[in-house]
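This entry is set out below.
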Amino acid sequence: MNSFKRENVKLPLSAVWLTNSIAEYKGKQEVYTKQSPQILKTLLETALIESSESSNRIEGVTVDHARLKPLVIGHSKPRDRSEEEIAGYRKALELIHTKHKSLRINPETVKELHRICRGESWDAGKWKEKDNDIIRKHPDGRIEVIFKPVSAAKTPETMEQLCLSYEHSVSQLKYPDLYAVACLVLDFLSIHPFRDGNGRVSRLLTLLALYQHGFTVGKYISIERIVEQSKETYYETLNKSSQKWHEAKHDVIPWFNYFLGTVLAAYKEFEERAANIKPARGAKTQILNQVIERQVGEFSLGDIERECPAISRDMIKVIFRELQKVKKIECLGKGKSAKWKKI
């Protein structure tokens, strides 16, 4: 598709820095999730609620705040159309969380995500039947057409081309992973394949593609909320990068930088929140014992500290002394860099 037609893409230094920072935070998240998945349950539930609320609210769909948790976490029965769409978005998130490894990014999956999040709408899961324009409403009442998406007649074929182009890019390692995901979402929004719900599906598609490349921060931090909080910049960069899109002469970089900034903000927030989670009594001791049990050969206090960033060095020392007393580990030297081994 249009954003995938470029050869020898050269990323600006700012994008390289952002990409490298995301890779570092991604590694830190993997440590947190391995050491104690149970303490992240609160983050998971909060993200589900915030994502379902924010992604719909961006499109003008709102419900009573008191109803959000029953709808999203408690699976309460929707009372009206707006609540149906909140519950539908939650179901689509659940599909991505549980089956992202087996879902192909193809037209059928895209239509299925739309069908789930649009609920009982008459055109849920169906491509648009009429041409649609992206407009801007001015304070004086004027309506300005700022972008003309792909026509309804060409939408099925163009969506097929987009999915094939993305799949080819990934399989051939044509672009960096995050750049390929940004191109996928930009092209999807430029095609605008549905009568309504394009924004919500684009955010679901973002999560799905990120998950498939190992960037799972959206499971614990709502990327949708971060987009909502920066939606003026979101629309501005989307508008910049879609100019001359039909001629494949557009500039992906403004959108790509915004996209990277959003993902990085989610990772930073994840680390901050995860570090402040208070596990259940005794959970830290259990975590440390599990990490030490996994060690092979010699290891240091610093090795354990790196695998348990939410646990203080003083507590790790306490556990080391306790295990040393019961002869489960022994020290092979002296000082901060001393090596230990299991007995």
